[in-house]
Amino acid sequence: MVSLWENWRRGLGRGPKFDTVGGPATYATELTRRNSSVSLTRQGADTGSMQINLSWRMRSSDLEERSRRGSLRHPLRAFKPEVVQAHTRGVVSVDLDLACMYELTDGTRGVVQPLGNFLGDFNAAPYVKLTGDDRFGAPSGETMYVNLDHKDEIRRLLVFVYIYDNTPAFDRAQAVVSVVPSNGARIEVGLHERAPQARSCAVLLIEHEKNELVVRREARYVYGFQSELDRLYGWGLQWGRATKAGRI
Questions:
Q1: pTM attached to this predicted model
Q2: Which of 168, 155, 170 shows the shortest CA–CA distance to 56?
Q3: If 0-12 CB within 10 Å is exposed, 13-18 middle and 19+ buried, where does residue 157 land?
């Protein structure tokens, strides 16, 4: 399988893309500032199970700089090829988390995220389920599932990415959020902008517009965490300190 990273390097985000969460190769629709939304209803993809995946790699410039510094300190290493594996802390030292704020039509609001172990539910409200927490940047990334058979019970979903360990990392990690609907093209939002101090990013908003279920690109970086995104989008949740399962 050709990696998403290789496709970026070859085509700078244009042309055919390949599925990072499994399955055959397929074309993708990349949401940009100019083309910022797509209707799931129009492509017959507003039912069934929809995947939302986060994957990331360290920026190539950072890898080259690290290799150069290592060669200066240890000249013999210049003859040894660099092993680049996204799932090792030696290469990727950031911990990006995929999360989602939800609002249902009955007024229920909440969040699905690794922090606090709020993993959601696929077959019951909120009809969003996070399958796990990738702490090392593995190629499979992090994935959540949305049950669109209950789309009429979902008012809006705000998919966002945040940094768990408080270390600004959007400047060093090149991330992409992929939406894989039940039908039609994949939808991708690349987090390409360098935001060295940002700790959270509202990536996309899924909501009903004129009887259509629409995915809209946000790519809005903020310097705070969930509470700041909440304030910007008017969710009105109460936030407190929490840790991931297995962490202090």
A1: 0.75
A2: 170
A3: buried
